[in-house]
Amino acid sequence: MNYPENLFYTKDHEWISFEQDHALIGITDFAQKELGDIVYVDIPCLNKIIAKEAIFGTVEAVKTVSDLFMPVNGKVIAVNPLLETNPELVNQDPYGCWMIKVLVSLSDDRESLLTAEQYLAQIGSN
Question: Any idea where the Lipoyl-binding domain is (predicted)?
Fold first, then answer.
């Protein structure tokens, strides 16, 4: 499995990439493999402020639905438009296929985010 070291991770299997004035958020390679074939992504939170650890959407796979949890406090400023017609992109390229773009609040708590090494230790991979 692939876990880029320039990203941060959550215990709930989301990744976050901090850009200049925003962050991109998606799910990890581990999460997409556990879910299986993703058939639908529902993210109804555009232009809403979402609290850290609150649900910002769901991912539906062939046999299950999984909640998506916000890694930091922030306002959702974009939802990846490709996911509406091509949800399978999450399976094909979990780190290239961001789900939401967020303006991160000044009070975000980055200390609880995991490095790639810490995330690998959590999921039991080497």
Answer: 22-103
| Domain span at 61 | 15-106
Establish if 27 belongs to a structural domain. Answer: yes
How many separate helices (H) and strands (E) can be counted in the chain? 4, 9
User: How many Å apart are CA 82 and CA 16, to the nearest integer?
Assistant: 18
| Residue type at 13 in one-letter notation | H
Confidence (pLDDT) at 99: 98
Q: How far apart are CA 75 and CA 52, in angstroms?
A: 11
* Cβ proximity of 62 and 37 under 8 Å: yes
- Is residue 118 included in any domain, yes or no? no
Distance, CA of 37 to CA of 87 (rounded, Å): 9
Residues of the chain where predicted confidence (pLDDT) is lower than 50: none
Separation of alpha carbons 21 and 52, rounded Å: 18
